[in-house]
Amino acid sequence: MINSMSAAHHPTAETSAARISVWTRSARLLAATVMGTMAGCVSPPPAPVAAPVVARAQQPVTTAPRPEPPPPVVAPAPLPPQLSAAAPKPQETPPVDLPSYAKRGKRLPADGGPAGRAVMDYCRSFEIDKDAATYFKRLQKQNRLPTDAEITERNRQTDQALTVQQFVERDWALRRDNNKSVPQKCKVLGGSVEGATAHVVFEADLNGRRQRGTAAVVLSAGKWRLRDHGDWSPAR
Question: Which pLDDT belongs to residue 202?
Fold first, then answer.
C-alpha cells in the first residue's frame, strides 16, 4: 500500500511529458489569445490617401488670324492740266546800223536774204584747206582740177614744166598768202535793197582783225553777185 501511494505521488516520466505538452499547448493558446486581443485593440494604420488628381484644363486651340485682304487699288484721279507759264518771247535783236547811202532802200532780214547768201558764197570761195594735199583731193572730187591744156598754157607763160600736182600745190600756197587780205569767217548782219542793188552789212576776219564792212551786191541775170566791199571798221 505504501508503495501504491508512493507511486501515486511520484508520477512517471510519461505522465510528466504529457503534462508538459498540455501546458505548452495552453501557453500557446493563451499567447495567441492575448495577441489576438491586442491586435483587435490596435487599429491598423490608415491607408495612404492618394493625392487628388486635378484634371488639366484643356487649352483652347488657337489658330493664327487670317490676314485681311488688301484694300483695292484705286487709281489716282488724273490731275487737271496745269497751265504752263507762257514761254518768254525771244528778245528781238535791233536792226543793224546802216551806212547813210544804204538807208534809202527797204531793209533786208538779218540774214540778208538772197543778197546775204551771195556775200556768204563769196566768203566761202576764199576758204582754204589745211594743206596742199587736202586741197588737191577736194578739187579732184569736185572735178575742178586744171586741164592739160591749162597746164600747158601756164607752163608756156612761165617758161616752166609743172605737173598738175605741182600746179595745185603752188596755187594753194598763193591762196594761203592772199587770204590774209580777203574776208574770212563772215557773218551777215542785215542790210537794205533798192531795185537791183543791195547793200549787205557783215562782219569778217580781215588782216588779222575782226571787222565790220558793207558789200555792194547787184542782181544780174536773175542772180545776186557781189560787186565790191568796203567801209571796214573794227567790229563792235
Answer: 96
Secondary structure letter of residue 181 according to DSSP = G
Residue given cell 487599429 in the structure block: 43
Q: Model confidence over 166-200: pLDDT tens digits? A: 999 999 998 888 887 889 899 999 999 999 999 99
CA–CA gap between residue 172 and residue 129 (Å, rounded): 8
Distance of CA 13 to the CA centre of its chain: 138
Determine the straight-line distance between the first and last CA of the chain, rounded to whole angstroms.
200
d(C-alpha 167, C-alpha 108), whole Å: 42
Closest to 202 measured CA to CA, from 192, 210, 190: 190
- Is residue 217 within 8 Å of residue 201, measured between CB atoms? no
Residue type, 83: L
Task: Please report, as a single letter, which amino acid is at residue 1.
Answer: M
Sign of CA dihedral 208, 202, 214, 103: negative
Mind listing the pLDDT tens digit for each residue in 77-128? 777 666 555 666 656 678 889 999 888 889 999 999 999 999 999 998 888 8
How far apart, in whole angstroms, are the C-alpha atoms of residue 144 and residue 153? 17
Contacts of 19 (CB under 8 A, 6+ apart): 11
In which band, very low, low, confident or very high, does the pLDDT at 236 lie, cut at 50, 70 and 90?
A: confident
- For residue 210, give the nearest of 191, 231, 190, 184 by alpha carbon: 184
Select from 235, 236, 198 the least CA-distant residue to 215: 198
Interatomic CA distance for residues 120 and 107, integer angstroms: 18
Nine cell digits for residue 59: 487649352
